[in-house]
Amino acid sequence: MTAYRAAQAFRSLAVLLVASVAACVQSAPGPDGPADLLVEVFDGSTMGTTYTVRVVSVEAWDEARREQTGFRIQTALDDVESAMSHYRPASEVSRFNEIQSTDPFPLSSPTFQVVRAALELAELTDGALDITVGPLVNAWGFGPIEPDVLPPDAAHLLRLRGRVGFRKLELDDATSTVRKTDPKLEWDLSSVAKGYGVDRVAEALMEEGSTRFMVEVGGEIVASGLNHLHQPWRIGIERPADGGGIQRVIPLSDRALATSGDYRNVREVEGRLVSHTIDPRTGRPVDHRLASVSVIADTCLMADGMATALQVLGPDDGYDLAIERGWAALFLIRDDGGAITARATPAFDQLAPSEPQLALQ
Ligand code: ADP
Ligand code: MG
Question: Among 311, 300, 183, 161, which Cα is nearest to 240's?
């Protein structure tokens, strides 16, 4: 465990894994440049993290307009949280976990869509992303049910692993239901819910007629159109090393970017910091050199799930899978001394060229 990881874990203020460096509040291009544009900024809390939304506007919005948009953003996120949080006893996720029955369980259309995407990704990643990992997440102290002992003993882990497996879930499109074939199965949509929330906010802004905005929830991002400087939005990927800083600035427009890291959500178990990402193959938190992985995709739902899956697989198997699937991914790999090496897939370099001039402003 490096000093860096220890320091990160005990830092009182969470550092955004992906820092937006996209826009300040206002800009004033020169007299011959394009029209001056403004940026309306909205922020708040959701799903145990924070969000920021920036919308490019031609003129300052009045209070009524700001209130309406702020309300729509918060409502879109609240809807996702109340359906998909396993911390909310009345959510669809919690109720499905509660019932120990193999009967079909009706899902709202958003939850159905999220579960379907997660199961597709589970197939594509051979179960690296597995939303039935819930009991293991709890056993390691990252879920709503605090474990009696940490770390869980090997026999307990073996029993829990017997209850995990995405193939034990059956979705039925016609009836919009899900069924567990093992009554003890429990799920956890945390690996994809934030990304889906970002997509829902983007959708709400589009419905309002906005086309140029950036939505960020806990480091998962959608950028639409150009920023107020008439350029792609610029997103800084944090360098997870002593001293921090920005590893690379990503130009993003009409795409999503999600990042999974091994150091932000950690807890101490027997003097070691363990990550909240569980490898379903071992039932244990991941333990490798992949400090973070960022993925660019068309939707934030997919980018979020892909990033979690690659974080499970680690720097070598994850990279190989991203190459095989043609995914745009950037791996930040930590060496023994804590230094970071970046490794991007060709698809990532193509979508987000690493240009020296693309520095922070
Ligand atoms: P972050 O972006 O904050 O790093 P992720 O999107 O990677 O978070 O999701 C991590 C969460 O997903 C964990 O807190 C846990 O609830 C759940 N989880 C952990 N391991 C897996 C896994 N292998 N497959 C699916 N969900 C997982
Ligand atoms: Mg994720």
Answer: 311
